[in-house]
Design goal:
The structure is a single chain. The protein is α+β, with helices and mostly antiparallel strands. Helix content is about 20%, strand content about 10%. Strands 2, 5, 6, 7, 8, 12, 13, 14 and 15 form a nine-stranded mixed β-sheet that branches. It is elongated and about 95 Å long. The two termini are about 20 Å apart. It binds a DNA duplex (22 and 22 nucleotides) through strand 3, helix 5 and helix 6.
Length: about 750
DNA sequence: TCAGCTCACACTTTTGAATAGC
DNA sequence: AGCTATTCAAAAGTGTGAGCTG
């Protein structure tokens, strides 16, 4: 369990509490977001600790931030899966997600740089089992696994870059290997999860302090499995995934073809048997056995026998389609039989293919595009998923206000419909009218982004993630940024005085030495390594523009060319922040009430002096949704149906708390893995646990950006793992620190 | 006994290198 | 020599099914 004690840096200053907000473009909702992991602790805390969102003193000083929107291009495909109950295979080596997350983002400042992240959080505390044709919660979830974040290979890239193309996270892999060293996202099997996408404004590569937006698409939630449980899902996967094309009706690896191959093998074995057994009498009897099973058994039993030279002897199974059947007497028959068998398959295949021309082909095309196209054209025999219903069994978990109302899944016969209905409409009700009908609007749009921090559940880590900030501290106010993301805050790159430092990796240094260019064009991404230049944990406040939440610095000490340099992420996902944190006084802020409006992300600890600074203010006017304010427990299902509300320009505020995934989650061992090449170098096992001497790095513009537009190139490099301080690690005297030595680093 | 997991398998797509042609 | 198109092999991504484990 991650605790503030272990990660002092996790403790949030008063200002941090305001980092997380639900934001509505039209009617900005100003809500603190708390990570699921914090829900538990939050639940235990008195509601009073959750100060109401401060009234926006400075409405929309940054219009563009309010305009940030994200669409799920392949939402229709996702909905098809969700209607059945999406299952995601997880393997030890890691498995890609299918469907993949294909997104379109808009509203970004074309000239600003952004980092896109993907993380997956548990939807509830339940473990599921596929029973009676549906998923049902059968017990409590296992201990939460280390949180890992997948950073889009293109990160950081300009808003123009992100907006000019479809953003795909299909390279992210899921694994159930808790000891995974590849940087894959670790999940438990038979648990429900919800992917989240975060857009972090990066003033420069070194600093993540700009606007933060989080997006949740309810239809993308899934249950992890090691083997598909629902045949419908299997069918959908096969029909939708190009790599599974072989398993389609017309595929060479289809059931039919596999059976045919098996029969041929059997035939071969039988031939061997024939050779072995030359008894004419026996062969006659054998020929009369239509059962493949019998022949198989016999063949297997006799396969080991030494072959006999007499080919004339032996039986021929009816299905012996082996072209080279050794039956001189009836070579033609055998051949015909074989051809007939093959032709049957072929004819069927062709027929299927012909039929598929309109269906399968379209499906294939769609499938092929599914990864690249927004709208999957897949049309399956499966009943169209009810717009609002999900086949996911409702978990018998305490979901104070869940937008997932139990809906009659396709498996109406299921005696135990435990599928929490996924009310897309409700969640999508917030969809912006500007979005295409096919596009799915994220249910959650947070103005500020903070990574989940470990819940102070256990005694060792009961430290509050949130600042002890009292309402008076007005934690919900974002500290106005004085510096635009573009502005090169050289000063900000000054060596961090904070204890937490991350030494730059050699690769990083190399990159740094390279021409910063700042060109986000893919062509520039020759290097898979994306360097996050060392950033000084200096007070970002001065540099941060108003209305911008104070970005937490993430000081990490990493070896750089033998010389450790300071490397700080002003605002980094909590997991990363856990790497090393300056002394942060633990605050009771962690004790947050389990209000439905809790932020999806726990406020990350922010070591820098921002605490003394005014809280970042989120355009209250734009961030606070009246409906939310009125009823924190408002359920998503109460939200207007997207279809009906599509015309509405305003996004109904969505309570994260209402979303199952944001419900209290079991304690977990916080662990952050940045799936980005640039982070790899930093993961050297040689990383010093102590804070290296701070190094001064040039401003962001001067850093060469190695954008990984080519996923392959970027992926060729092992993901870097940034581990949080070990659970049992002891807090650094000066506060949090990166204890890389306690954990295996790859 | 059984649910869940691991692994090998066959198939497919993707990718990059090698080659040929202009 | 440089560029483009084609071919080929390797790598990686799929679901399946047998076998293993607790």
């Amino acid at each position: 369990m991650l605790s503030v004690e272990m990660f002092p840096g996790l403790a949030l200053g008063p200002q941090r509490i305001g980092d997380c907000f639900y934001r509505d473009r039209e009617v900005p909702a100003h809500r603190p977001l708390f990570p699921p992991t914090c829900d538990v602790s939050a639940a235990a805390l008195p509601p009073r600790l959750l100060a109401p969102p401060p009234v926006p003193s400075e409405p929309s000083s940054k219009p563009q931030k309010d305009e940030v929107k994200m669409e799920l291009e392949n939402s229709s495909l996702w909905k098809q899966f969700s209607s059945v109950g999406t299952e995601m295979i997880i393997t030890k080596k890691g498995r890609r997600m299918f469907p993949g997350l294909r997104l379109k983002v808009s509203g970004l400042n074309p000239s600003l740089r952004y980092i896109l992240l993907l993380d997956i959080v548990p939807l509830d505390n339940s473990r599921y089992r596929f029973q009676g044709g549906g998923w049902q919660a059968v017990g409590s979830a296992e201990a939460r696994l280390p949180d890992r974040v997948f950073i889009h290979p293109d990160s950081p890239a300009t808003g123009a870059h992100w907006q000019s193309r479809t953003i795909s996270f299909h390279y992210a892999k899921l694994t159930n290997n808790t000891l995974d060293t590849q940087g894959h996202i670790i999940l438990h099997s038979l648990h429900r999860y919800q992917p989240r996408v975060h857009v972090i404004e990066a003033r420069d590569v070194l600093r993540w302090g700009g606007g933060q937006h989080s997006f949740v698409f309810p239809e993308t939630q899934f249950i992890t499995v090691t083997a598909y449980q629902n045949n419908k899902i299997t069918e959908l996967k096969i029909n939708s995934n190009p790599f599974a094309k072989g398993f389609r009706e017309d595929g060479m690896n289809s059931k039919k073809q596999r059976d045919a191959r098996q029969k041929r093998k059997i035939a071969v074995l039988n031939e061997t048997l024939d050779i072995v057994n030359c008894d004419p009498c026996d062969s006659t009897e054998l020929l009369q056995q239509p059962s493949d099973t019998n022949t198989d058994l016999q063949a297997l039993a006799l396969a080991s026998l030494p072959p006999l030279p007499d080919p004339s002897c032996g039986f021929r199974p009816d299905e012996a389609s082996y072209p080279d059947a050794l039956v001189p007497e009836q070579p033609l028959d055998l051949g015909q039989a074989f051809m007939a068998s093959q032709m049957t398959d072929i004819s069927i295949t062709m027929a299927n293919g012909m039929q598929d021309t309109a269906g399968s082909e379209v499906a294939n095309n769609m499938i092929e595009r599914s990864d690249s196209m927004a709208e999957p054209a897949f049309t399956s025999s499966l009943p169209a998923p009810p717009p609002n219903s999900s086949s996911f069994p409702s978990a018998p978990l305490p979901q104070p206000s869940s937008s997932f109302s139990s809906l009659p899944s396709s498996n109406t016969s299921d005696p135990q419909p435990s599928i929490p209905p996924i009310d897309y409409p409700s969640l999508l009700s917030s969809s912006s009218p500007t979005l295409s009908a096919a596009a799915t609007t994220p249910s959650l749009q947070q103005t500020s982004f903070t990574f989940p921090t470990p819940p102070p559940s256990n005694t060792t880590s009961p430290q509050p993630l949130l600042p002890s900030s009292s309402p008076s501290s007005n934690p919900y106010h974002a500290v106005p940024e004085t510096i635009s993301p573009h502005a090169q805050t050289d000063a900000s790159f000054a060596a961090p005085s904070s204890t937490g430092q991350m030494s730059a990796h050699p690769l990083l240094n190399q990159t740094l030495q390279q021409e910063p260019g700042g060109d986000d064009s893919p062509s520039d991404q020759s290097s898979a390594a994306f360097i996050y230049p060392n950033v000084l944990p200096t007070n970002p406040d001065s540099a941060q523009p108003l209305n911008q939440p104070v970005a937490p610095t993430l000081p990490c000490s990493l070896p750089a060319h033998g010389a450790s340099t300071s490397f700080a992420f002003p605002s980094v996902p909590p997991p990363m922040q856990n790497l090393s944190f300056p002394n942060v006084s633990p605050s009771p802020a962690l004790h947050l009430p389990p209000q439905p409006l809790t932020a999806a992300f726990p406020p990350s600890s922010f070591p820098h002096p921002s605490s003394s600074l005014p809280h970042p203010s989120f355009q209250p006017s734009s961030c606070l949704a009246p409906s939310f304010q009125q009823s924190a427990g408002a359920h998503l299902q109460n939200l207007p149906n997207p279809s009906s509300s599509s015309s509405t320009s305003s996004y109904p505020p969505v309570e994260i708390g209402a979303v199952p995934q944001f419900n209290p989650a079991p304690p977990y061992r916080p662990e952050v893995v940045l799936h980005h090449p640039s982070l790899l170098p930093q993961l050297d096992s040689s990383l010093p646990s102590s804070t290296p001497p701070p190094a001064l790095y040039p401003a962001f513009p001067s850093y060469p950006l190695r954008l990984c537009q080519d996923p392959h190139s970027s992926l060729s490099i092992p993901f870097r793992h940034l581990y949080r301080q070990h659970q049992h690690g002891h807090p650094h005297p000066q506060g949090s620190y990166l204890d890389m030595s306690t954990r295996a680093v790859f």
